[in-house]
Amino acid sequence: AWEKLSRATVKGAEYNSRQRLPHPKCLEGTRVGLLNHIYWLLDNPKKSQLIWLHGMAGVGKSAVAFTVAERMKGLKINEQTSSEKRLAGTFFFSRKYANRCMTGNLFATLVYQLACNFPSIKDNVTRAIRENPAILDLDTSLEDQMETLFLQPLRVL
């Protein structure tokens, strides 16, 4: 099941993929207000952990997202853990790449990264795939994929 999930992931969608070189990043001293607001939201457990960046092409959404992802990758979930990072996963869409302009493998890619960054859920994710291997098919609804790949394994925690 783990190997099947690995094959279903979209290579190049991760924030630090070589496919995305040069990595867009906020220059020192820019977007300070926006970045601080995002960090505040992410540090506040009572706030939503989902942040939607939107705007016209070229306004710097990818640079902001990369900068935030890079910071979260460097932070641990808490002081007691040595392997679990605060970055759960990333998916950067792109019109240039066929597998990154569609949502078919979005959840497979994210849950693979989630299980790599949080090994405590890997067994639950692979169990969910063994019980329903078709969940990784491109035509499976996003709602079903989110429920099976994310919510069910996380509820076990």
TrEMBL record:
Q: Which keywords belong to this entry?
A: Repeat
Q: So which domain of life are we looking at? A: Eukaryota
Which is an annotated Pfam family here?
A: NPHP3_N
Q: State the InterPro entries in the record.
A: NPHP3-like_N (IPR056884), P-loop_NTPase (IPR027417)
| Domain spans labelled Nephrocystin 3-like N-terminal | 41-150
Q: What name does the UniProt record give this protein?
A: Nephrocystin 3-like N-terminal domain-containing protein
Q: What is the lineage of its organism?
A: Eukaryota, Fungi, Dikarya, Basidiomycota, Agaricomycotina
